[in-house]
Amino acid sequence: MEKLFIFDTTLRDGEQVPGCQLNTIEKIEVARSLESLGVDVIEAGFPVSSPGDFNSVVEISKAVTWPTICALTRAVQKDIDVAAEALKYAKKKRIHTGIGTSDYHIKYKFNSTQDEIIERAIATVKYAKKYVEDVEFYAEDAGRTSNEYLARVVQAVINAGATVVNIPDTTGYCLPTEYGEKIKYLVDHVDLKNAILSTHCHQDLGMATANTIMGVLNGARQVEVTINGIGERAGNTSLEEVVMAIRSHKELNIETNINTQKIYPISRTISNLMNMPIQPNKAIVGRNAFAHSSGIHQDGVLKNLSTYEIIDPKDVGIDDNAIVLTARSGRAALKNRLNLLKIEVNDLELAKVYQDFLELADKKKDITDEDVLILAGKETNGMHRIKLEYLQVISGIGIRNIANVGLDIAGEKFEASATGNGPVDAAIKAIKEIVRRQTTIQEFLIQAINKGSDDTGKVHMQIEYEGQIYYGFSANTDIVAASAEAYINAINKFVK
Ligand code: KIV
Ligand code: ZN
Questions:
Q1: Which one of 138, 180, 244, 475 is CB 3.0 to 4.6 Å from 166, fit for a cystine?
Q2: Domain spans of the chain?
Q3: How far, in Å, from the CA of 231 to the mean position of ligand 2?
Q4: How far is CA 395 from CA 3, 124, 149, 219, 428, in A?
Q5: Tell me: the pLDDT tens digits for 393-437?
Q6: What is the pTM of this model?
Q7: Are residues 230 and 236 in contact, defined by beta-carbon separation less than 8 angstroms?
């Protein structure tokens, strides 16, 4: 079996989509999920583009162990300096640098010549090599670059030290045969002893997965993909489609490191965090991807799955017999769902999660997998030295916002009241009154999980205490309670 490297760019190309921006806390959550999914490379951001992107690359580098962390740059020295700095905590690091190589880019973007672009590409790779061993070069708009010129560029950057050369079909223009021939041309005309070729396809004409597979069949050994195929315009190649196509066709003799059972959970996480619904008929992860409605199909599938299904839904983490969780579900049903979601809990944790589950089920009709993940995260995270005993708020328009809070700190009970410019402000001030630590809230994000006024609200909070950053998270159908709990979750991380 030959290994195909999976380069995930959900947090860079995917995150460029308007409205899909994630905060650092969420990016860390995604990076950790990508690590357990088994991706080889995580493209964590474009550090020179903003302080937020820089910080995310730093924090992801700290949070993740196995995958290589990659940072994007233009062919500009300053970009490379900043990327190298952002990657300083990464255990395995890669700089991804490059320049446009099509006539459109050379003429209109750079007002330059083919030879000058090659010189700049060589100089850029050599500059990046001063910082890291692993340098990937992208020939932007390679899809519309002539094969002869592209081969010259690829050979030149490999000679300069590039370990991976990315052949992006930036505009999503190529036909599958054309993209496959491009990769074959490079395999035949470039010395690839010291480097591999990577695909990077866009979905403008709906051919990203087909083009990527054609690239692999013709010799590319890395694919650049995103979860759910999210990305600029029509999107990038979707990770789940490529991985499952390769896995379903054993005759290709190619394998990836992906733990396919984690595909569905991470697909849902990305969709929720980015507020980007998945089209119901999306291959592999869409709601209808395994739903047979015609009588003939149902009859066949009931007799034997293989009659109409080429993938067992369980292989991508979808449990087709999922029991719907409601207020009447027992502990065993909850435990079964937690196991399906790959969450291990001991008996004590299960008892607590079950208690929270019953409370939530009283307020909300359908308990989704996201709700269960959140409830489990709440009970398994943190030291819980400080617990919220009760919270009462009086708020409205034309009256003062007042919060009364009761905390249990290591068994001792404390109470305080405070006013604020809103119920959340009042609640946090009352908590501060008790814990008496000088903290500053630096980031505060409230999000609904699904839809409807009975929905669970998720709160992410980033607080600063004595020069250190601490993250807090909670979820509750009451967003004031979720905010107070997220604050307490963060301070529990430093209160000893
Ligand atoms: O599509 C593209 O060309 C890119 C490069 C920056 C790698 O995303
Ligand atoms: Zn791209």
A1: 138
A2: 2-273, 291-379, 382-491
A3: 8
A4: 59, 58, 67, 64, 14
A5: 999 988 999 999 999 998 899 999 999 999 999 999 999 999 999
A6: 0.70
A7: yes
Residue 407 contacts by C-beta under 8 Å, 6 or more apart in sequence? 386, 387, 388, 389, 413, 414, 415, 431, 434, 435, 488
Q: Are strands 68-72 and 41-45 parallel, antiparallel or unpaired?
A: parallel
- pLDDT per position as a tens digit, 147-165: 999 999 999 999 999 999 9
**Shortest-distance ligand to the CA of residue 73:** 1
CATH 3.40.640.10 fits 382-491, yes or no: no
**Ligand 1 site-directed mutation target among 200, 202, 203, 225, most atoms within 8 Å of CB:** 200
Tell me if 288 sits within 8 A of 320, measured CB to CB.
no
41-45/5-8 β-pairing: parallel
Pocket test for ligand 1, best of 8, 9, 11, 13 (most atoms within 8 A of CB): 13
- CATH 3.90.215.10 for domain 2-273, yes or no, is no
